[in-house]
From TrEMBL:
<dbReference type="GO" id="GO:0009060">
    <property type="term" value="P:aerobic respiration"/>
</dbReference>
<feature type="transmembrane region" description="Helical">
    <location>
        <begin position="162"/>
        <end position="184"/>
    </location>
</feature>
<keyword id="KW-1133">Transmembrane helix</keyword>
<keyword id="KW-0472">Membrane</keyword>
<keyword id="KW-0874">Quinone</keyword>
<comment type="similarity">
    <text>Belongs to the complex I subunit 1 family.</text>
</comment>
<dbReference type="GO" id="GO:0003954">
    <property type="term" value="F:NADH dehydrogenase activity"/>
</dbReference>
<keyword id="KW-1278">Translocase</keyword>
<keyword id="KW-0830">Ubiquinone</keyword>
<dbReference type="GO" id="GO:0048038">
    <property type="term" value="F:quinone binding"/>
</dbReference>
<feature type="transmembrane region" description="Helical">
    <location>
        <begin position="248"/>
        <end position="268"/>
    </location>
</feature>
<dbReference type="GO" id="GO:0016655">
    <property type="term" value="F:oxidoreductase activity, acting on NAD(P)H, quinone or similar compound as acceptor"/>
</dbReference>
<feature type="transmembrane region" description="Helical">
    <location>
        <begin position="190"/>
        <end position="211"/>
    </location>
</feature>
<protein>
    <recommendedName>
        <fullName>NADH-quinone oxidoreductase subunit H</fullName>
        <ecNumber>7.1.1.-</ecNumber>
    </recommendedName>
</protein>
<dbReference type="InterPro" id="IPR001694">
    <property type="entry name" value="NADH_UbQ_OxRdtase_su1/FPO"/>
</dbReference>
<keyword id="KW-1003">Cell membrane</keyword>
<keyword id="KW-0812">Transmembrane</keyword>
Length: 345
């Protein structure tokens, strides 16, 4: 029985890992296509029909380019940086419920790798580790632009993790649990989605998610106009590819997390009124969940080509003087409304 359980989880891990890499790979194509559409040009359209083979060509280019390790760098940490970045990006998805259980051969199969009761804390712990990959890469490069990008990434991460954590405290006050699986299960249907109870918390969370993923308008750690390429200035070949992959994986996982915490995850309206079997409800739920994820990914890309980059002082001021006070006010308001509800209703 234990062997079957381990085998089931290994298969699920391989499937999720493969889907994550494929989505991250084709997110690069989607971003270039969306950029082309918004700038009135076609985007990549040479490699395969409509350019669908372009990510494979880009991946091949990364693999076959010359590997350069700067003479003055710390070689071990220089190599460890991108590895740590990609590993932390991939393991964040372990506690996300991708769907309800499937019934196969009279056995229920969970579509969640690990339903731990402190799932939210696990995610924050792994996200906090992710910045170490950037710090190691920037410091070990022995390049002033890389170091400045790494310091910016660390300061930005610390600043916006506080706002993100405070925004989630209000959500946890409503749900009463740290388990991501339970939070999603509580949002059955449509009107129970947490976005209706926590709109301000969601706005704070998604703003902090942009900063955590180093996406425009918060891409200060790698802004080309100031720091050449930021913390990965000295990187080439697949090490550069790992840093880029980790960014797109973080964007995918952040989208999955926002869909799970605020938009019902795999839940969709009238899911139990359609008269379908459990397996069909699960399959449709998974498709709905990924549709929500792709909607958030599109929003990430849309913002990139819509808003200008912040100055660094504006970034810090927004994090410490706007988002954190707003998050604290949201906690107080949530507490007051919860007390009134429990007392009079």
């Amino acid at each position: 029985m234990e062997t079957a359980f381990i085998l089931e989880k290994l298969i699920l891990v391989v499937i999720i890992f493969t889907i994550t890499l494929v989505i991250a790979m084709y997110s690069t194509l989607a971003e270039r296509k969306i950029a082309g559409f918004m700038q009135d040009r076609p985007g990549p359209n040479r490699a395969g029909p409509f350019g669908i083979l372009q990510p494979l060509c880009d991946g091949g280019k990364f693999f076959f380019k010359e590997e350069i390790i700067p003479a003055g760098s710390h070689k071990a940490l220089f190599i460890l940086g991108p590895i740590l970045a990609i590993v932390t990006a991939c393991i964040t998805s372990a506690v996300i419920p991708w769907g309800q259980t499937l019934e196969i051969g009279g056995k229920s199969i969970s579509l969640q790798v690990a339903d731990i009761n402190i799932g939210v804390l696990y995610i924050f712990g792994v996200i906090a580790l992710g910045v170490y990959g950037v710090m190691l890469g920037g410091w070990a490069s022995n390049n002033k632009y890389s170091l400045m990008g790494a310091v910016r990434a660390a300061s930005q991460s610390i600043s916006y993790e506080i706002g993100m954590g405070l925004s989630l405290i209000a959500l946890l006050m409503i749900t009463g649990t740290l388990s991501v699986g339970e939070i999603v299960a509580q949002q059955e249907g449509f009107l129970n989605w947490n976005i209706f109870a926590q709109p301000l918390g969601f706005l704070i969370f998604i703003t902090c998610a942009f900063a955590e993923c180093n996406r425009v308008p918060f891409d200060l750690p790698e802004c080309e106009t100031e720091l050449v390429a930021g913390y990965h200035t000295e990187y080439s070949s697949m090490k550069l590819g790992l840093f880029m992959f980790s960014e797109y994986i973080n964007m995918f996982v952040s989208s999955a997390l926002m869909a799970s915490l605020y938009f019902g995850g795999y839940n969709f309206p009238f899911m139990y009124d359609l008269g379908l079997s459990q397996n069909w409800i699960t399959i449709i739920g998974v498709l709905v969940f990924f549709a929500k994820i792709f909607g958030f990914i599109f929003f990430f890309m849309w913002v990139r080509w819509t808003l200008p980059r912040f100055r660094y002082d504006q970034l810090m001021r927004m994090g410490w003087k706007m988002l954190i006070p707003l998050a604290i006010a949201n906690i107080v308001l949530t507490g007051v409304f919860t007390l009134i509800k429990d007392t009079y209703f």
